[in-house]
Predict the 3D structure of the following.
Amino acid sequence: MATERIDVRGVARLARLALTDDEVERYGAQLEDLLKHVDDLKQLDTSDVAATAQVIESRNVMRPDVLAPCLDHDAVMAGAPQPQHGFFRVPKIIAEVG
């Protein structure tokens, strides 16, 4: 059963995923179950729980900056599948939908 609250095919299209009808039904049911759990959590009384952005303490781990030699440009470009004018040639990944 696909969820009425989420357009599974629309989300799949945005993520550039091709889903079969069976997958739409399966993922829709899973999303609906997830949303039911969220609805259940909304029913809980959290008035005595302090607001927090994190549930565990965190801290930044710092290290000193150390200069390291760079790889040789010619050696790197020699291993590139499609070097072009000293740069890596890569396939276009952004396309207009229309």
Remarks:
- The mean pLDDT is 88.
